[in-house]
Amino acid sequence: MNHTIKRAALFNASCLALIVTSMTFAVRAKLEGVLETDFELTSTDIGLAFAPAFWGFTLAMIIGGPLVDYFGIKKIVWMAFFSHLVGIVLTIFSSEFYSFFLGTMFIGIGNGMVEAACNPLVASLYPENKTKMLNRFHVWFPGGIVIGSLIGYLMMDILNLPWQLLVTVLFIPLVLYGILFMGKELPKTERVAMGVSNKDMWKAVVSPLFLLMGFCMLLTASTELGTNQRIEALLSDTGVSGILILAFVNGIMAIGRGMAGPVVKKLDTTGMLLFSAVFSCIGLIWLSSASGGMVFAAAFVFAIGITYFWPTMLSFVAERIPESGALGLSLMGGLGMFSVSIVLPIMGKFMDADSGASTLSYVAILPAVLIVIFFFLFLKFRGQKIERDVKGEEVLS
């Protein structure tokens, strides 16, 4: 098998693993009504049952990051596979709070392990094209949400099939990514291939630049994930379905990430981040005052803004702080998911005291802060070439 085919197979396997991750978000959202009726859970109980999806994800990424370098990407991929398998099975056979909670916890851990393994894998497979390929990889987070939402709507709303069959659909991408990874030799992470010591890795993740980017990750992820998680309530007074807007936004994100190549050529990572912050801020401000059909126009601008946030933040760290290795990428992803647990209660307090529109205007403060930070980073790194690079052939040797 030649080098190009091997890279393509491993990249496709990674994308399928991310589809499992993102589909679980859509499937879980669809099961909220089931938990209310069949399981007879309160809204508080449902919130507690969903919680492991976020902290399990964060925990797995923070633990999985260092383990990727120590044990190799392959072992973490299989930890993700078996965590997903156990979580899906437990969810299918759950009938009350604790069994559903346990299933959600294993799925959350599997999701985190996918990010912990596949982000450094993609960066190692395409060292010469990290930003473009990480964006293409992350097409399948919004893409999987759209797929899961449409399948859920078809199976439960149109065909009126049992909810267990919807969860069973997750086995399709799970089995496919297991088959594609089976028997494959996976590359070493860039940090290991570069011969960077553990001491230098830990130095890198406490460097001022990494800490600044970690702070920015809290704001970028809160802007994206926090808003999308509460979109229906935030837009309740606009006369437009929040679920339709969610599907619309994620569809645009998937298309935008798939077309990241030309954007990368025109803008480097700092330029892309500045572009994202500006459009996110404008989109949120517009959404806070839009109604009717104009909500879709404002949502389009917001979607353009958040499209490149998550993968480009990871790309920046992979390119500018490669010594941080898989740990650096995992910490960034973990901080991003952890931000959801921070921002949602704050948004809830605003929404209890005021309208969804006012809350959106408050959220716009986050990308406004990012505009300032990314503008100075853009000036600092403009025109600078990446100093360290590892050829794909060397990585895969």
TrEMBL record:
The keyword Transmembrane applies. The keyword Membrane applies. PROSITE patterns: MFS. This is MFS transporter. Residues 10-382 form the Major facilitator superfamily (MFS) profile domain. It comes from Echinicola arenosa. It is a multi-pass membrane protein. Belongs to the major facilitator superfamily. Its main location: membrane. InterPro entries: MFS (IPR011701), MFS_dom (IPR020846), MFS_trans_sf (IPR036259), MFS_Transporter (IPR051788). Coiled coil: none annotated. SUPFAM superfamilies: MFS general substrate transporter. Keywords: Membrane, Transmembrane, Transmembrane helix, Transport. It holds the Pfam family MFS_1. It is found in: Endomembrane system. The chain crosses the membrane at residues 46-64, 76-94, 100-125, 137-155, 161-180, 201-221, 233-255, 267-287, 293-314, 326-347, 359-379.
